[in-house]
């Protein structure tokens, strides 16, 4: 049996039907049914029943036929109920955002099933293993591989509000880059600053003595004076940008010698308050569109727990080594053997996922001997 699920038509998010006389019920047969009618559109080619609208010879949205609408949709059975259709009307259900490119990945459930079949049982190196143990080690493998092997970078885009704050995503582990987008759609990198932050501000009385809660802990303010002063700083003006200096001698001011780049970047800066899960931006970023590229652990949702097929074998080797290494009475040479195989499989996966192309490398190397005229 082939691994590809569904037809090529369904892969592109399309189900089509030819209606019989006055047909109203149509059963979708996507491998994964849409969870609601808001995830797809219904198009018609032909005529609706008399009184329900006009005729058409091109693909037209259902609502264009006299305001017709979906009567009901059952996400469990896939039964879609529409107004009565004229005979031979072609009904096409098209998913708004189909899951394209999914064949290159394998799901966690399939990984576990394959491991249980291929690596455990009588006359195999692992004679028995609990499925829960295999699932645990598989999730740990996905998590570790997400940090330095998989292409697990995500990106969010928001407009910076008056608070100059962006909340961290729920599956955030670490950031890769934070940038703002200029009028041409080009990323302008922001730099992290070490010269400010949001320290815990301890409350004091008029004699500067600490104040405490009823349970004896410090009474503190969630927003420090440091952060309030930073947010109240004046926004840089055009005169702060060297590109608009009118006097050439301005470029030779001695105070700019040896300047810290993190303090002179006109693009702006940021710092991350990990205690409260927020990114704070400098005041010149107000109203700009910000892009956050960050690393996830790949375990945020069930749909994210997938593995690229280039790294599938490395996952199996990782699980096998983890299972054997956590058991007693397993000869050390067996554990060492699978540790070595795991390391080799991870190296192979990294090479495969690096996506190196011979032609692209050749084109790059052709420029190494070019003379640059002065």
How is this structure best described in words?
- Helix 2 packs across helix 3 (131-148), helix 3 (131-148) crosses helix 6 (312-325) and helix 6 runs antiparallel to helix 7 (332-353).
- This protein is α+β, with helices and mostly antiparallel strands and 374 residues long.
- Strand 5 and strand 6 form a beta hairpin.
- It has three domains: 8-95, no CATH class; 102-150 and 299-355, no CATH class; 153-235 and 261-295, no CATH class.
- The longest helix is centred in the last third of the chain and has 22 residues, at 332-353.
- The relative contact order is 0.13.
- Helix content is 24%, strand content 22%.
Helix content: 10-25%
Overall shape:
extended
Secondary-structure class:
alpha+beta
Task: Output mean pLDDT.
Answer: 82
- Order of neighbouring strands in the sheet with most strands: 1-7-3-4
* Total domain count: 3
- What is the CA-based Rg, rounded? 30 Å
Report the sheet with the most strands, covering strand number, pairing sense and barrel closure: 4 strands, antiparallel
What percent strand?
A: 15-25%
Following the backbone from N to C, one meets helices and strands in this order, namely: HEEEEEEEEHHEEEEEEEHHEEEEHHH
Which ranges are low-confidence, i.e. pLDDT below 50, for 5 or more consecutive residues? 242-246
Number-wise, the strands total: 19
């Amino acid at each position: 049996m082939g691994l590809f699920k569904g037809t090529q038509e369904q892969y592109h998010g399309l189900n089509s039907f030819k209606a019989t006389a006055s047909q109203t019920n149509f059963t979708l047969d996507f491998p994964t049914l849409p969870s609601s009618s808001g995830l797809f559109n219904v198009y018609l080619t032909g005529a609706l029943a008399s009184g329900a609208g006009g005729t058409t010879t091109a693909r037209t949205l259902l609502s264009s036929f006299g305001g017709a609408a979906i009567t009901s949709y059952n996400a469990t059975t896939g039964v879609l109920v529409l107004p009565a259709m004229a005979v031979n009307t072609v009904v096409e259900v098209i998913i708004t955002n189909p899951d394209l490119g999914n064949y290159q990945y394998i799901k966690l459930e399939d990984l576990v099933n394959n491991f249980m079949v291929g690596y455990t049982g009588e006359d195999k190196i692992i004679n028995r293993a609990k499925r829960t143990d295999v699932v645990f080690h598989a999730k740990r493998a996905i998590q570790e591989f997400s940090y330095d092997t998989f292409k697990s970078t995500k990106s969010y885009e928001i407009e910076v509000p008056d608070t100059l704050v962006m909340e961290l995503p729920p599956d955030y582990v670490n950031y890769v880059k934070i940038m703002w987008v200029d009028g041409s759609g080009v990323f302008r990198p922001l730099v992290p600053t070490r010269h400010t932050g949001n320290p815990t501000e301890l409350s004091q009385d008029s004699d500067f003595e600490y104040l405490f809660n009823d349970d004896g802990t410090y009474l503190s303010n969630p927003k420090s004076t440091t952060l309030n002063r930073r947010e109240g700083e004046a926004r840089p003006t055009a005169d702060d940008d060297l590109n608009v200096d009118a006097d050439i001698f301005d470029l030779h001011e001695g105070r700019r010698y040896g300047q810290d780049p993190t303090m002179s970047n006109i693009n702006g800066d940021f710092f991350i308050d990990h205690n409260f899960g927020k990114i704070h931006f400098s005041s010149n970023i107000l109203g700009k569109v910000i892009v956050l590229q960050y690393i996830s652990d790949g375990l945020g949702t069930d749909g994210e727990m997938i593995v690229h097929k280039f790294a599938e074998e490395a996952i199996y080797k990782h699980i096998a080594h983890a299972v054997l290494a956590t058991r007693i009475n397993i000869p050390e040479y067996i554990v060492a053997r699978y540790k070595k195989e795991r390391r080799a499989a991870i190296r192979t996966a990294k090479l495969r996922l690096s996506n190196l192309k011979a032609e692209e490398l050749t084109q790059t190397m052709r420029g190494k001997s070019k003379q640059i005229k002065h």
